[in-house]
Write a structure and sequence with these properties.
Elements (H helix, E strand, L loop, with lengths): L6 H8 L8 H30 L1 H20 L4 H14 L3 H11 L6 H4 L2 H20 L2 H4 L9 H4 L3 H21 L13 H10 L11 H7 L15 H10 L9 H7 L6 H29 L9 E2 L5 E2 L6 H49 L8 H34 L6 H33 L4 H17 L5 H18 L10
Antiparallel strand pairs: 1-2
Length: 505
C-alpha cells in the first residue's frame, strides 16, 4: 500500500507516458506486476507449505519482499520497477499459506470471527503506516530541501527513502518470525524449532512472561482417554451435531493411499464457486485500490471545474499531491481496523458468513456506480466529504467480504491434508484477477479521459461486481449443509424401530 500515494508521480518521472492521460495505464501495470507473479507462485508456495511447513514459507516470502522493495526504490526506469514488483510477487505469493496458518489455529467456531480478522487487521495497520510513509518520504528533496540536498542520492532516487523504511520493517518482522512464530502444520509442528527456543530464552528473564510447561509436564496433564477416543457406545448423534457446530467440520487427515483415491474429489463445485467469487471480489476491490489514488491525482480541467456534457459524459479530477493522497489512504486503513474488530464479528453473528457475503456481493456494484460522480460535488469541502464517504463504504464492504469468503472456502475443504494446496489456489485466483484489474482499469480510465467518460473504468468494475453477485448466490456453506444432513439422519433414526438388547449386548 505504500506505493499508491506516489506511483502516479513515479511513472511520470520515468518519462514513458507521452501525455498525462496514459499515466494511469502504466501505474496499473506496476501494480499488476506484483499480483500476476503472485498468481504464478501461489499454488507452488501452498503445496510447498504442505511439505515443509508454514513458517519457512512465510519467512521466505518476507525476505523476498525486502529484496523487492529495495530494487524498487533504486529503480531508474519503468522496466526495473516492473521487475522489482514481479520479483516481490514471485517470492511472496503466500496469502494462501497465511490463511491456512490462521485456519490451523482455530478449533472452535465461536473463535472464527475474531481469528479471521487477523489478516484484515494486519492489512489495516499496513494501510495506515504504508501510505503515510510513502506520502511523507517520497520525493524528499522536493518537500524537505533543507534536509535532503538537491544532487544527493535522494534526488537521484526520489522514491528510495520510503522503500528503505519498508525494507527495514520487513527485516524486523523476519527476526520476530524466526524467534516467536510457531509452526502450525500438523506434522511439522512436532519437530524441534531452535528459533522459538532461542526466543523463549530471550524472554525468560521478563517477569510477566508466562513460562511454557515442559513436554513431560504436558504429558502428565493429558487425560488418559480423549473425547474423540470415547468408546462407540458412549457417543450420540446429538453430541456429534454439537461438535460439528462448535468446531471445524473437516474430515480426519487421510493417509497417502486414500489421498490418491480421493484426489479427484478435492475440487468440488462449492470450492470452485468460492474460488471464483473470491477472484471476482479481488478484481474489483484491487481496481479500486489502484484506481482511486490515480483518480485523486488527476488534474482537473482548465478552470478547475469538471466538464459536463450529460449525466454519463463528464471529465474531472482533484489534483491531489502524494502527501494528500497518503493521508486519505491512511484514514482508509484506520477505519478498516475499526470495521474488522467491531463490525465484522457483529455482522457474522447476525447473518452468518454465507448470507453476509451474498448481501455484500449484491450491493457492491452501487459503490462503483457512485464513485466517479464525486468530481461533480460542489466545492472542495463537499468533495472531501464524498471522498471519505466512499472510502468508508469500500472499507466496510471489504473487511466483511474477504474473511467471510475465506471461512466459507475453509469449510468446503474436505480434508486438512489439502488445506494448503486449496488455499494456494484460492489466493492464486485472487492474484490473477488482481493482476488484470489494475491494468484493465488503467486502460479504461485512459480511454474514459480521452472520450469524455471519466466514469468508464468505475462502471465496468460495477458490471464485474454484478457477475460476482450471481456467483455468490450459488454458494453454500458446507458446515451448515453437513449439520442439516445429521439432523435428517437423527429424524430417520427416531422413525426406525429399535431392537431390544441385553446389557451385555
Amino acid at each position: 500500500m505504500g506505493i499508491f500515494p506516489y506511483i502516479y508521480f513515479m511513472v511520470e518521472d520515468f518519462h514513458v507516458a507521452k501525455e498525462a492521460k496514459t499515466i494511469s495505464l502504466y501505474a496499473g501495470m506496476v501494480t499488476s506486476a506484483f499480483t500476476f507473479a503472485e498468481f504464478l507462485s501461489g499454488v507452488f508456495w501452498g503445496r510447498l507449505s504442505d511439505r515443509i511447513g508454514r513458517k519457512p514459507v512465510l519467512l521466505i516470502g518476507l525476505l523476498g519482499t525486502a529484496l523487492s522493495v529495495l530494487i524498487f526504490g533504486f529503480a531508474p526506469s519503468l522496466g526495473v520497477a516492473l521487475f522489482a514488483r514481479f520479483l516481490g510477487g514471485l517470492l511472496n505469493g503466500n496469502m494462501g499459506v497465511l490463511a491456512t496458518t490462521v485456519n490451523e489455529l482455530v478449533k472452535v467456531k465461536d473463535h472464527e470471527a475474531r481469528a479471521y480478522i487477523v489478516m484484515p487487521t494486519a492489512w489495516g495497520l499496513g494501510s495506515i503506516i504504508g501510505p503515510v510513509i510513502g506520502g511523507l518520504l517520497a520525493r524528499p528533496c522536493y518537500f524537505y530541501p533543507e534536509v535532503f540536498r538537491p544532487g544527493s542520492v535522494w534526488d537521484r532516487f526520489p522514491y528510495l527513502l520510503p522503500n528503505l523504511f519498508s525494507a527495514g520493517a520487513v527485516c524486523i518482522s523476519v527476526v520476530i518470525g524466526i524467534l516467536f512464530l510457531e509452526e502450525t502444520h500438523a506434522e511439522r509442528k512436532k519437530e524441534r524449532d531452535r528459533g522459538c527456543e532461542l526466543g523463549d530464552r530471550l524472554l525468560s528473564g521478563i517477569w510477566w512472561r508466562k513460562v511454557k510447561p515442559t513436554k513431560a509436564q504436558m504429558d502428565e496433564e493429558q487425560p488418559l482417554l480423549r473425547a474423540e477416543d470415547q468408546l462407540p457406545g458412549y457417543r450420540t448423534s446429538g453430541n456429534l451435531r454439537q461438535a460439528l457446530v462448535a468446531t471445524n467440520t473437516e474430515t480426519p487427515v487421510r493417509t497417502s493411499d486414500s489421498t490418491k483415491k480421493t484426489k479427484g474429489k478435492v475440487f468440488t463445485k462449492n470450492i470452485i464457486l468460492n474460488i471464483a467469487s473470491f477472484g471476482i471480489l479481488a478484481f474489483h476491490t484491487m481496481t479500486f485500490d489502484q484506481l482511486f489514488p490515480v483518480f485523486l491525482s488527476t488534474a482537473p480541467p482548465e478552470g478547475g471545474k469538471p466538464v459536463v456534457s450529460s449525466p454519463l459524459k463528464f471529465i474531472g479530477g482533484f489534483g491531489y499531491d502524494n502527501q494528500e493522497i497518503g493521508v486519505v489512504i491512511a484514514v482508509q486503513g484506520f477505519y478498516s481496523l475499526i470495521a474488522s474488530w467491531y463490525i465484522f464479528p457483529w455482522a457474522v453473528r447476525r447473518l452468518g458468513e454465507l448470507r453476509l457475503f451474498q448481501l455484500l456481493a449484491a450491493l457492491y456494484f452501487l459503490h462503483y456506480m457512485a464513485t466517479p460522480y464525486l468530481v461533480l460535488l460542489p466545492g472542495r469541502v463537499w468533495q472531501e466529504v464524498g471522498i471519505y464517504a466512499v472510502i468508508f463504504w469500500k472499507c466496510t464492504f471489504s473487511t466483511l467480504a474477504y474473511p467471510s469468503n475465506v471461512i466459507l472456502t475453509k469449510n468446503a475443504v474436505p480434508s486438512s491434508l489439502w488445506m494448503g494446496t486449496i488455499m494456494g489456489f484460492h489466493a492464486s485466483a485472487a492474484s490473477l484477477c488482481r493482476a488484470f484489474g489494475p491494468t484493465v482499469s488503467g486502460f479504461l480510465f485512459t480511454i474514459g479521459l480521452e472520450t469524455g467518460y471519466s466514469g468508464l473504468a468505475w462502471w465496468c468494475s460495477g458490471l464485474v461486481a454484478l457477475v460476482g453477485s450471481v456467483v455468490a448466490m450459488n454458494l453454500t456453506d458446507a458446515r451448515e449443509t453437513l449439520v442439516e444432513k445429521f439432523d435428517e439422519d437423527d429424524q430417520t433414526r427416531i422413525a426406525l424401530p429399535t431392537a431390544t438388547t441385553t446389557p451385555e449386548a
